[in-house]
Amino acid sequence: MEATLTSSFHLIVLPKPNLPSRSNKTTWKKRTTTQKIVSSSSSSSSEEDKPTELRVCTNRSCSRQGSRSILAVLSAIAPPSVSASSCGCLGRCGSGPNLVLDPPDGPAIVTCCATPARAARLLAELCRHGRFDPEKALKALAVRNEAEDEIDKGNFSEAQLFLSQAIELRPSGGLHFLYRLRSVARLAIGDNEGALHDAEEAFRIAPKFPEAFICQGDAFVAMEQWDAAEKAYSNALLIDPSIRRSRSFKARVAKLEEKLIVANASS
């Protein structure tokens, strides 16, 4: 049975299967009864958001309807308790972009999530107790996009100003990305202490965010604190071992090893 999530979405509540793979088409069997995906207003305000996974269909039909852009928005503004990734066809072609969500109350397919505003409102409904402000999240994302444009141009001072504006908005999601980017900008203009502070803020907000530890390591390298840098890079690897294959990470490790050899030889 289909249930209306908002005036813009349709919610199809499903039995608890494994989430779809990224490429294989998955057939879903609808549940005969509906259930809410958000807690009632009587829930304790002290209850923490439980992890939620969002998988956005990026198969041909949904991709033509803009699902990749929706995935990018969800990834950028989601709070740390919500992860967003791609998946294969959900069997609702033509009514997309479609996504499947797996909140604590059980999985469901959401259809017609076609604009950034709708994606932000979906996150607002998923996050308990009204703690997600969709308008503020999108405004911070717009400022972040301006900052990234400045970084691409090499204008790191301008990027830092934009990122500071976005951070001051205190968006409910994506704040760790903002601190990580400002860490990059600050390091580029020689503000090593500021870069270190922002990296530490990023992993304080999102402890499983490996890029924050990489930024911390970069700041320690700039400050010639080699052992601390080695530990920071190791922490990033513990979170995501796959970054070991990254060219940029290999270059960081090689640079650090050279510095350690020189430091040990001179001691």
Automatic annotation (TrEMBL):
TPR repeats (start-end): 210-243
SMART domains membership: TPR
UniProt xrefs under InterPro entries: Thioredoxin-like_sf, TPR-like_helical_dom_sf, TPR_rpt
Domain of life from the UniProt record: Eukaryota
Disordered as annotated region, ranges: 20-52
Alphabetic keyword roster: TPR repeat
Biased composition (Low complexity): 34-45
Protein name: Uncharacterized protein
Organism: Iris pallida (Sweet iris)
